[in-house]
Design goal:
- The protein has six helices and no strands.
- The protein has one domain (about 1-134): EF-hand (Recoverin, domain 1).
- It has about 130 residues and is an all-alpha fold.
- Helix 1 (about 1-25) packs across helix 3 (about 50-65).
Length: about 130
């Protein structure tokens, strides 16, 4: 089963890299993206909202961007300084690296709950910009 999980994680990583290339997000400039740019890239169906699946896709892209050496794991040195204090919470198995599953299990609920201020299960640009200001 672990082999299958590794294949799925690798496939998702490749998918996210493809999404990053399609959106024109240079890997080195990932941290320079404004909330509006991130929102526009996540709103795949261009309906003016970001649903949970679009949000998940964006978070997978963020994982790939953080994984600087492309080994499928994020280590503390790859995490921006302002988020390094969260690393132990995300690293559930305490192996000093975070895989995609750990990342999504922590990031998806934490960020979704923070961003979806009116709890309607979609994000608007206003909600994303307000959350980014916090």
């Amino acid at each position: 089963m672990n082999g299958l999980l590794n294949k799925v994680v690798a496939w998702l990583g490749a998918l996210a890299i493809g999404a990053a290339m399609l959106t024109g997000v240079p890997l080195a400039q990932a941290d320079e993206i404004t909330p509006q740019q991130a929102f526009e890239r996540a709103d795949i169906d261009l309906d003016g909202n970001v649903d949970i699946e679009e949000f998940r896709g964006r978070k997978i892209e963020v994982f790939v961007l953080l994984d600087e050496n492309g080994d499928g794991f994020i280590v503390l040195s790859e995490v921006p300084a302002e988020h390094q204090d969260k690393f132990p919470k995300v690293d559930k198995d305490k192996d000093e690296r975070v895989d995609l599953r750990e990342f999504l299990v922590y990031v998806m609920p934490a960020f979704w709950l923070e961003y979806d201020m009116n709890k309607d299960n979609v994000l608007t640009l206003d909600e994303v910009e307000a959350a980014a200001k916090k």
